[in-house]
Amino acid sequence: MSPTERVREMEKMVNRLKVTFVITKFISKSRQLGSSIGPIQLDTISDGYDDGFNQAGSREPYLSSLHDVGPKTLSDLINRYQTSSSPIQAVIYEPFLAWALDVAKDFGLFAAAFFTHACAVDYIFYNVYHEVLKMPVSSTLVLIEGLPLLLELQDLPTFFVLPDSYPANVKMTMSQFANLDKADWILINTFYKLELYVIVDNVESS
Fold it and tell me: Does the reported pTM lie above 0.90?
């Protein structure tokens, strides 16, 4: 099958899908988004602060609330859909919200982790999680196998150098790998193949 044919088959498959994008109640309310954006349906869960982040006061209590309240409200949402004419078949989640994977598996659903950082950034996080690169990082130059560049401290997140100063950031970043082995698919934020297909398709169409 040619790249053009692959793209067209993917388009046919996408046209048969019904997608629901889940956001927090505060984002939905504050941006007045309604129930859909084009063909994409919108629905909401709670992070525990439905009137906004300022209720929390700082990142630590906000993330703690999101971790406690998010799974329950996501479970409630999935339960509601499972008794509808459009039951959920799969969950695509941001790995920073690793609890979404646990919820999906509790319902026997397929789950895909979608890493939204650049691939190189996720690879650095992965190496820290497995202690190939250990915090606090203090070396002037940092070499990570698989990356073509020597990194300087300024190239790394601040909490790699001062982890005790940013405990919420460290916990959230590392948690995305804790249950990743349960995911059915792992999607990385790179568009190399997609760009190749678009180029080929444009050439063949001209």
Answer: no
